[in-house]
Specification:
Elements lengths: L1 E5 L11 E4 L4 E5 L34 E3 L3 E6 L5 E8 L1 E6 L4 E12 L11 E2 L4 E4 L3 E4 L3 H4 L3 E4 L2
Parallel strand pairs: 4-6, 7-12
Antiparallel strand pairs: 1-3, 2-3, 4-9, 5-6, 7-8, 8-10, 10-11, 11-12
């Protein structure tokens, strides 16, 4: 996680972190995000560390795709590949299951999100989110932060 704090940052020796001093009297504190296993067992005991973290285990901060004018971000992935991250989107490719036709429609608002109930008021889209479009209610079937598009299926 990246934090910008003015002034003094206390030293937490139990957290693996590095500090960088910037020109404008701010500190940048960074801790490596990882998808490595937990340090603790279910019982509360600690696992013995038998190796360090690997590059392929590193994680990124979630893109949290919002409703708004389309904005994409291109990121580099392992193997020299690239991935489009959708930061904001105002249109969705909606499929009508009765006619099996797809149409690009404008997203009016977000109705519900099974990932997090607070994402609704923040207008954040994830897979499984129910959106209100010009054609009616639709459920998002793609992963906007991973795929770079919003695909949905009409539910009413």
């Amino acid at each position: 996680m990246v934090y910008k704090v003015c002034g003094y940052i206390p030293d937490n020796s139990n957290i693996n972190q590095s500090k960088t001093y910037l020109n404008d009297q701010t500190f940048l504190m960074y801790r490596m995000l990882t998808q490595y296993r937990s340090k603790r067992k279910i019982t509360g005991g600690r696992y013995k560390k038998y190796r360090g973290k690997r590059l392929y285990e590193t994680a990124r901060i979630a893109s949290l795709t919002k409703l708004g004018k389309t904005r994409l971000s291109k990121i580099q992935t392992l193997g020299g590949n690239s991935k489009n991250r959708l930061l904001r989107e105002e249109f969705a490719n909606v499929v009508d299951p009765k006619t099996n036709k797809a149409k690009k429609t404008k997203i009016k608002t977000i109705l519900e999100n099974p990932a997090n109930r607070h994402y609704v008021r923040r207008n954040i889209m994830t897979k499984g989110t129910v959106i209100d479009t010009e054609l009616g209610k639709a459920k998002i079937t793609s992963r906007p932060g991973q795929d770079g598009t919003v695909n949905a299926v009409l539910i009413s």
